């Protein structure tokens, strides 16, 4: 075993923190993104529930949030974080900015995935007398599933990147480990180790995503 | 069953108004296989999609079983839509679901019990002869098989009307024939009224009992297929009919006729059904004592009725020609003079 200059337990803790942050913000972000993207798709111009006002509101909110770089968003919404979690620092506190960051990103990805579904499918659904919810549930989602999985994969990888910055508010995680111990203490082996771990993580996630997406699409 | 009352539709494309349909009135009776034919852009698909309110007319009414489809609330509209099956040129099947699940969807939407769904889906797949493809995905099927799945799905809820939007236009001739046979069976055995929209005249010839011809959003001609094909009135109709029932003299014969020096006129005669059995040409030669020769002839069967088109040369002066046409009028045979 190579010497990383820190106890192994610290590495494990950092990994746990990263997984914790990614898993929870991904789950919450996906739920929000799912709702938002469905609203956007249905209310968009020429959509089946066309509503300019609703569409404009959601579209603008997403654009605004997406224009703020994550490191700024992290500190900018600290008062909101404090109000929700009760503290400004720590791993749990980082969940708020992470969700605010990833939800609009996933919304755009999900929106594109759902829009890829052939308009003819929606037409067939309407001709069958399906309600708006049934169109989403029985037609759009099953048809977009393969693409949605890839969107979640892309979102997950984006989130792992964002968690590295969450160290700025004391959230810990693998990225923070590399910065504080690897960079500031000039511990190159640790830096290299974290980079390799991150590469393996990202590769694994992408491969799993591709596998399931391809499985669904190859029907 | 379906009644279009003075339908007009304008679209606004890039701030320009486009008249897609103007003043269309049409009635489709129960049991009909009604064909609407026109080139692309004629507005025929827009008209078809008004039956289940996928499109709304700008003015005019669409009555389906006596109900004005555009005044219904959304719940009632959905109920009515379940009584109207629809199939598409691009099939519009869910690629993520098996043949079985595709056919089951309308039943799931109807909240039918799973055992009943199972029974009904197998029954439908047997009807469209796809029992062996239950577990296949649409991408594993040929075009004809996909359309059969589309048909099974459309029939799932026992509709009284079936809308076919260019349903055979993406298929090869042989597959088209098989699908047309299936549609015929649906009309006969299940007593479903079928409204077909197509740009292929042979679909109308082969399948329909009534036809409407559309051009640039207007209804050009309508009536029974026999009447319209047997004696087309409008240029557009003639152009369509000519492609399946040729009625023009071949160029080499035209060239030869130009060299003739004796006086003659050309006459096109339409024979329909029983009339085609009368020995008209014999009568003209024998009793009117006028020399004729056949320049061109074609015989087609429509709706189990024989339709013949003859172009004959009547030799002699105008007086002879009048004798012949008088005789044809007596026999109630439609004719027209042809100029070359």
In this structure, how is the largest beta sheet of chain B organized? 6 strands, mixed
Given the C-alpha coordinates, what overall shape of chain A results? globular
- So, the CATH homologous superfamily of chain A? MetI-like
Name the pair of protein chains with the most residues at their interface, and give those residue counts.
Answer: A-B, 21 and 27 residues
Number of H/I helices of chain A: 9
- As for the CATH topology of the largest domain in chain B, it is Rossmann fold
Measured distance between first and last alpha carbons of chain B: 46 Å
| Average predicted local confidence, pLDDT of chain B | 91
Low-confidence stretches of chain A: none
List the secondary-structure elements of chain A in sequence, H or E: HHHHHHHHH
- What is the total number of structural domains of chain B? 2
Helix content of chain B: 25-40%
Radius of gyration of chain A: 20 Å
Described by the principal axes of the CA atoms, the overall outline of chain B is elongated
CATH class of the largest domain in chain B: Alpha Beta
- CATH architecture tag of chain A: Orthogonal Bundle
Under CATH at level 1, the class of chain A stands as Mainly Alpha
């Amino acid at each position: 075993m190579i010497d990383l200059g820190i106890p192994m337990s610290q590495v494990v803790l950092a990994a746990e923190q990263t997984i914790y942050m990614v898993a929870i913000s991904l789950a919450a972000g996906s739920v929000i993104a799912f709702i938002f993207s469905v609203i956007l798709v249905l209310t968009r111009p020429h959509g089946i529930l066309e509503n300019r006002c609703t569409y404009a509101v959601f579209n603008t909110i997403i654009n605004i949030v997406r224009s703020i770089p994550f490191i700024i968003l992290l500190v900018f919404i600290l008062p909101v974080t404090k109000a929700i979690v009760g503290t400004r620092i720590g791993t749990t506190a980082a969940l708020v900015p992470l969700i605010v960051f990833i939800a609009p990103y996933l919304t755009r990805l999900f929106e594109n995935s759902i829009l890829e579904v052939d308009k003819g499918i929606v037409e067939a659904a309407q001709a069958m007398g399906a309600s708006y919810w049934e169109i989403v549930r029985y037609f759009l989602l099953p048809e977009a599933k393969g693409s949605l999985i890839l969107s979640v994969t892309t979102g997950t990888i984006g989130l792992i990147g964002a968690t590295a910055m969450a160290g700025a508010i004391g959230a810990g995680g693998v990225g923070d480990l590399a910065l504080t111990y690897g960079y500031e203490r000039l511990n190159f082996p640790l830096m290299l180790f974290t980079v390799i771990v991150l590469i393996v993580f990202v590769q694994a996630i992408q491969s799993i995503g591709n596998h399931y997406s391809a499985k669904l699409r190859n029907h | 069953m379906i009644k279009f009352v003075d339908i007009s539709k304008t679209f606004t494309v890039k701030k320009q108004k486009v008249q897609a349909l103007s003043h269309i009135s049409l009635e489709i009776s129960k049991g009909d296989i009604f064909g609407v034919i026109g080139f692309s852009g004629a507005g025929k698909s827009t008209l078809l999609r008004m039956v289940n309110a996928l499109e709304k007319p700008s003015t005019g009414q669409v009555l389906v079983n006596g109900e004005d489809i555009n005044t219904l609330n959304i719940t009632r509209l959905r109920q009515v839509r379940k009584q109207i099956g629809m199939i598409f040129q691009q099939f519009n099947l869910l690629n993520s679901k098996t043949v079985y699940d595709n056919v089951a969807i309308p039943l799931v939407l109807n909240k039918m019990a799973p055992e009943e769904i199972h029974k009904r889906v197998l029954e439908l797949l047997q009807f469209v002869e796809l029992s062996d493809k239950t577990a296949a995905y649409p991408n594993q099927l040929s075009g004809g098989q996909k359309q059969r799945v589309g048909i099974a799905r459309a029939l799932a809820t026992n509709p009284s009307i079936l809308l076919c939007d260019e349903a055979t236009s993406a298929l090869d001739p042989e597959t088209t024939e098989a699908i047309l046979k299936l549609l015929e069976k649906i009309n006969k055995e299940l007593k479903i009224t079928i409204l077909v929209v197509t740009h292929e005249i042979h679909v109308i010839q082969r399948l329909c009992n009534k036809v409407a011809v559309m051009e640039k959003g207007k209804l050009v001609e309508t009536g029974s297929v026999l009447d319209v094909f047997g004696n087309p009135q409008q240029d557009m109709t003639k152009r369509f009919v000519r492609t399946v029932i040729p009625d023009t003299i071949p160029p080499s014969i035209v060239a030869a006729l130009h060299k003739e020096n004796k006086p003659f006129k050309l006459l096109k005669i339409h024979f329909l059904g029983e009339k085609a059995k009368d020995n008209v040409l014999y009568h003209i030669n024998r009793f009117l004592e006028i020399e004729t020769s056949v320049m061109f002839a074609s015989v087609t069967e429509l709706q189990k009725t024989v339709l013949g088109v003859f172009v004959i040369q009547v030799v002699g002066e105008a007086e002879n020609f009048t004798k012949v046409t008088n005789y044809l009028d007596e026999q109630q045979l439609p004719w027209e003079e042809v100029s070359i």
